[in-house]
Amino acid sequence: MGAAREVVAPADARAEHADARIGAQRILVVTLDTLAERMAGPAIRAWEISTALAAEQHRVRLVTFGACERPGVGFDTAHITVGDFRAEVDGADVVIIQGFVMQTFAWLQQCPQVLVLDLYDPFHLESLEVERYKPVEERNASLANALRELSAQTARGDLFMCASEKQRDLWLGHLGVAGRINPDTYDADPSLRSLLTVVPFGTAATPPQRQAPAIKGVVPGIGTDDKVVLWGGGVYNWFDPVTVLRAVDRVRERVPEVRLYFLGMKHPNPDVPEMAMATRTRRLADELGLTGTHVFFNEDWVPYERRADYLLDADIGVSAHFEHIETAFSFRTRILDYLWADLPIVCSAGDTFGDLVAAEGLGATVPTEGVDALADALELLLLDDDAHAAARANVARVAERYTWPVVLEPLLAFCRAPRRARDADRLRGPEFGTLPWYTRARLDALAVLHYLREGGPRAVVGKIRWRMAKRRGR
């Protein structure tokens, strides 16, 4: 892991956290996900954000409350604990947060740092599917927790990021309810893009490079001349691999060399359990007699740096989902890997990428749960070389819009001159003093221990003076 950067004592916080700062910033990127060779979407996004900001000469530190096994290149990485977090924030000018963080640390509502909230994953809608097969009491509790987190986020962010224009409509509604669409923010920017901007998931700016074969001629049962349809990610409850299995069962009659490969059945974050849909998928593949002949499962998760080998061994990328609210506002990150590798795409209609595939001729979109339509689309792209080549050329053209340097530009521009939200003076989050006395005492004790360890008694005195000055200024 990267070496910890010295934490700047907060005695100068008021001067350092003025309304606007130009030049190199101290930027803290916060995730809950595992940082390792095998990373899921949230960790990948945090990693690429850190990489891009470090390339602009900012001092970037990527921290996780999960496991951290991968050193950064040009930036620090570290595992942190709850007790470490306040000092990490105090040492930053800008803090970029994703996931369930804000409600855990109520003091973030009052901190002087510029806060960027990443809303690319509508987790309150996702929870409806993640918890779908649990008792209703647990489902209600999970949703209530997600809504509390969103309330804490929308109450405080200085900049919000989402993944698509459709998502932006969703989050504008949340911000409106939270009172963040007001005369201050509207008069400053009637479009509100300076408050809520679109930063999609991205792909590498350089084309994928093969290190070694990964599927064809490597996986038992898949030959070098077989035609591989790639399911490029995990199997979660909101996806519909069942329709894909049934379509492949039909396609094999006309295309006996078709092979469906599931890229990752085991999530790299150990806190994410296998979902009911994964079990159902395996069972159906067995019942149809497809397992090991036409359907194959990678039981692990592909290392991030090796995913190109798997993508370059595929002929088509596939993604299927059900028609529900999660689908409407999702942003299927696996399809970006298909774009990166110039793979023709067959996917369900109804989400952002379904619209893109149809509009740009990137392959085919099919109705949700449409087995026959999906089978026909796969057959066309597997058997018609001209259709395959045309889709591939269109994918290569569109992929240029989704490279990380392009999609991250709104965030990069903001961090070159970060500033508090225009309505910062209106924000009134929960005060530290409203916490129970024993919670305040525990947090103060942890802070004292940290500052003694990092900077000695002088750092503790500086912290006390800063807090007293802050209280006098209220």
Main sheet?
A: 7 strands, parallel
How many separate domains make up the residues?
2
- By secondary-structure content and strand pairing, the structural class works out as alpha/beta
* CATH architectural designation of the largest domain: 3-Layer(aba) Sandwich
- Name of the CATH homologous superfamily of the largest domain: Glycogen Phosphorylase B
Instruction: Give the end-to-end Cα distance, rounded to a whole number of Å.
Output: 40 Å
Protein name: Glycosyltransferase family 4 protein
Organism: Georgenia yuyongxinii
GO molecular function, one term: glycosyltransferase activity
Pfam family, one: Glyco_trans_1_4
Itemize the secondary structure elements and their pairings.
Blueprint: H1 13-16, E1 26-31, H2 41-55, E2 59-64, E3 76-79, H3 82-90, E4 94-98, E5 114-118, H4 123-130, H5 136-156, E6 159-162, H6 165-177, H7 183-188, E7 196-198, E8 227-231, H8 241-254, E9 258-262, H9 276-287, E10 295-297, H10 307-312, E11 316-319, H11 325-328, H12 333-340, E12 345-348, H13 352-360, E13 363-366, H14 371-383, H15 385-399, H16 404-407, H17 409-416, H18 437-472
Parallel strand pairs: 1-2, 1-4, 2-3, 4-5, 5-6, 6-7, 8-9, 8-11, 9-10, 11-12, 12-13
Helix pairs in contact: 3-18, 4-5, 8-14, 12-15
Keywords: Transferase
Organism: Georgenia yuyongxinii
Pfam family, one: Glyco_trans_1_4
Primary descriptors:
474 residues; alpha/beta; Rossmann fold; 18 helices; disordered C terminus
